[in-house]
Amino acid sequence: MKNRRNILKFGILGLFSVVITACTKAMNGASSPTATDTATNTPSDSVTESSTKGATIAQLSSLKVGEGFNFTANDGSSAILFKTKDEKVYALSRICTHQGCLVNFDLGQNKLICPCHGAMYETVEGNVISGPTTKNLKKINVKIDGDNIVEDI
Ligand code: FES
Questions:
Q1: Atom 4 of ligand 1, nearest CA residue
Q2: Could you tell me if 116 and 18 are in contact, meaning their C-beta atoms sit under 8 angstroms apart?
Q3: Closest approach atom of ligand 1 to CA 117
Q4: Is 102 in the pocket of ligand 1 (CB under 6 A)?
Q5: 20 to 30 Å CA-CA from 138: which of 14, 21, 23, 59?
């Protein structure tokens, strides 16, 4: 009988700890900016993540027009790079100006969308399309150097 009580007691404790762990994970997932990347990082094999000044972000020839390429800016923040049909490049910070979640590029809508509260930004200037924020995404200056795209500091 005492054995049954112990089994029941440990079973309840085990179940309780599973519930607590699941709740903690759910709460962390809801408040942290751990968005799923939807940008295409196809050329990542040939890309050096930019964490030092002047480092190559990507090769111009390997970037696809209209697709976003996520990279780490020189200041360590997450950013996204785009190439236009006429081979111009531009980059925006991925840090949402509302509460700092990382925005994702939606290829179908051609917009940057925040997964936390739904803010939407257009992709060229980073202008707000819809809130809750009213502040545009920060621009990151990039330039073409041969076939390399580098941050212009
Ligand atoms: Fe992006 Fe709230 S953090 S909309």
A1: 117
A2: no
A3: 4
A4: no
A5: 59
Q: How far is the CA of 100 from the centre of ligand 1 (A)?
A: 6
pLDDT tens-digit readout, 25-73? 333 333 333 333 445 444 333 333 344 456 889 899 999 998 899 999 9
Among residues 112, 119, 89, 98, which one has the least CA distance to residue 38?
112
Closest atom of ligand 1 to 101 CA is 3
Using the mean position of ligand 1's atoms as its centre, give its distance from the Cα of residue 9 in Å: 43
Q: In what order do the strands lie in the sheet with 56-59?
A: 56-59, 148-151, 142-145
Residues 86-120: pLDDT tens digits?
Answer: 989 999 999 999 999 999 999 999 999 999 999 99
